[in-house]
Amino acid sequence: xxxxxxxxxxxxxxxxxxxxxxFLPYHDDEWxxxxxxxxxxxxxICLESFQSGLSWRTILAKRExxxxxxxxxxxxxxxxxxxxxxDRLLQDAGIIRxxxxxxxxxxxxxxxxxxxxxxxxxxxxxxxxxxGPDEQVPPQTASVTPQSIALSKELKKRGWKxxxxxxxxxxMQAMGLxxxxxxxxxxxxxxxxxxxxxxxxxxx
Length: 204
Description:
Pfam families: Adenine_glyco (PF03352). GO terms for molecular function: DNA-3-methyladenine glycosylase activity; metal ion binding. The protein is mainly alpha-helical. It has one domain (4-196): Endonuclease III, domain 1. Helices cover 51% and strands 3% of the residues. The chain is built from eleven helices and two strands; from the N terminus they run ββααααααααααα. Strands 1-2 form a two-stranded antiparallel ribbon. A hairpin with a 5-residue loop joins strand 1 and strand 2 (12-14). Helix 2 packs antiparallel against helix 7 (99-119). The termini are far apart. 36% of the residues are buried. The mean pLDDT is 95.
């Protein structure tokens, strides 16, 4: 369980946000706020798959390089990648050079295109897995939840790769499907306010 830490501004934050300097702006400005933008959702699910077995600090440091290498995570362009693109990316020292993860992003780009055709948007699909008020777990006490397990299972059924339950819970935390900011963290209230003013794109 994470404990809060006192940030330089004198306010409490989630403990992990104080572990390295670059985490604090990410924590304050991005993590845990609801996202309905398909491009951001796709980017995050790809980056979470790259993080598997690594630290988020490693991925965050390379995020801009990933964006360049994968054309801003435009899945319509990534879906056209072939063997030469895989070989090119395996030579790109700015990203994580892991063949399985690179190929998973290409595969998932194709699956994302299919999902948009069927569901209307990625957001409409992902936000169906937002837990209800009676399904919330205490902040920073879980690494998987019934919802992340269900999301992982459905994505795998649809052919997505590197989308295990733990990876999906990290995705849900970051994209605001759950508010997992620590109880005393000042961003917990901010994230709750953002969610209150957010219209869920989930349908059906």
